[in-house]
Structures are given as structure tokens and as C-alpha cells.
Amino acid sequence: MALRSKNLLGLKDLTADEIEYILNTAKTMKLILNSKNKKAPHLQGKSIVTLFYENSTRTRLSFELAAKYLSSSAANISAVGSSVAKGESLIDTAKTINMMGADVIILRHSMAGAPHLLAKNVDASVINAGDGMNEHPTQALLDIFTILDKKKTLKGLKVAIIGDIYHSRVARSNIWGMSKLGANVCVAGPSTLMPPEIEKTGVKVFTTVQEALIDADVVIALRIQKERQKSGLLPGIREYSRFFGLDEKRLKLAKKDAIILHPGPVNRGVELTTSVVDCDRSFINEQVTNGVAVRMALLYLLTRRDVN
Ligand code: CP
Questions:
Q1: Which is the closest atom of ligand 1 to the Cα of 61?
Q2: What is the ipTM of this complex?
Q3: CATH number at residue 267
Q4: For residue range 164-190, what is the model confidence (pLDDT) as tens digits?
Q5: Which of 50, 96, 214, 239 has a CA 20 to 30 Å removed from the CA of 258?
């Protein structure tokens, strides 16, 4: 099997088979990651560039380490400190990177659709590392990988996504990916932070966290994205925490073996109490490791393609 596209722009575009193919490859990559030597030749001779117009710790670093663990060259560029600050356009910046021989450009941008635009203008593969409020496909892939590792299947699982759904590209990618793999996804959050189009995705929408948590197999908490807020949407942080924050008492509504995930960075005491972040049902740290394995798999699969 091969991926149909040279780019990974969103989980909306992938089939269930393609998602499973990436995640199966990630299992092999995790073995390399867990080995003593952490080095394999899969990307020898390839060049990977991360181009980030927004802040990141996990996504950017995990792509760079993934590239290095597979013996690729890896370089990074940020909007701050580059010629973007002198007015160079996104497309011209990407074409410049392309002409230096990049095989993969990994883009994070505040504009929804920016990676799609780039993909039309460069020969390199383009990976979406988060575009505005649209998608964050590699985060959803690592979330799904983590769930499969713990629960073996997504089929029939109740996955509750709690928080700022409106601004969350993670929620959108997870809804696409998890629904394709047969999960029953529901969301809960303040009504001002619920996108109007959410009903069309087929997920259940709750306005209380309690309804979403009942018998959940997986609970995904999301950060309030203050950087994307228009005035009037955000409830006060204390009010948010009171009505939607997850503590051990609330989590008793979920199944006993429910697992807790969060894409990070976590605001302890807001969306999750510290005791929940650090409890034995929380796999937030494992998500970070799995993110490297998933990104190793993607870099490998996208660069071994001959066409498209
Ligand atoms: N989850 C995530 O995208 O984290 P970073 O913003 O640190 O990359």
C-alpha cells in the first residue's frame, strides 16, 4: 500500500486504511525510538525543513528529532528572525526552501488553508503542523495511536473531547480521524466556544461536561486558546474551570478504565487539575513520545513515494 498524496494536509483527506497504514508504520518506528541507538537509515539523503509561523514545542521538536533519528538532514525556520519579518510572502519563503533541496516542508501557520496553498506551489511534500482553526492532523494521529495502544480498537469507543472546541484544530482533526475509525465522538464546552458547523460532523454536542463524561472510554481535554479568542467568546478562566475543568470527582462519571489525553501544553488547574494530569490514567507524557514515532512514520512514508 502507499499513501495517495505526497502531502499530509488533513485527516479529512485520508481514508481509514491510510490512517491505519501510517499508525502501523509508527509501531515499527516506536521500536527504533525505544532502541538504545535511536538511529535508522530510512531518510538518508533527505532534507526536512520545519517552517513555523506560530509557537510550538512538541510538534516542531518532534518533527526535527524524528528526521534526525531516521538519518535525514533537518533545519528549521521561524517567521520571527527570518526574511518573513522583511515582508517575504509565505509562497516565496516556501519556494526558497524548496530550491535549497528540501524534500519535506512542515508548516504551522495561523491561516487555515496555508499548507494547501503551499502544496500547490512547491515540489516538496508538505505536512500540515497546524493551520489556524482548521486541522492539526499529526496531533490527531498521535492521539489515535495512543488510544489504539491502550484500547486496541477505536470501534464503538465513546471519546469525549472537552473544552474550547471552536478554536481547536486538534478537535477537528480528531473528529475526522476517530469517526473514520468507528469511534463515537462527543464534545462538550461553553456554548460560546462551540462551532455552529459542529452538528454537521455527526458528533454529539453537550453543554455540560457531565453528560459528555458519562461512560466515556477516552477523555481528551483541550486548552483554552486565548491567542485565538475574539472578545466575548471566552468565559472567565475561573468560571471555565468551575464548569468544564476536569478533576478526579468529575472523572468518576467516565468508565473506570477511561484514559485521559491532552495535546499540550497543559494549563494545570484550568482544564485539568494537577492530580489528574499526573494520575495513572493520564497518558499525556506517552502522547509526546508517540508523537515522535508517528512523525517518523509520516516522514518515511511521504519521502519513499515516487509519484504525485
Ligand atoms: N500539541 C501541540 O501542537 O503542541 P505544540 O504547540 O507545543 O507544538
A1: 8
A2: 0.98
A3: 3.40.50.1370
A4: 999 999 999 999 999 999 999 999 999
A5: 239
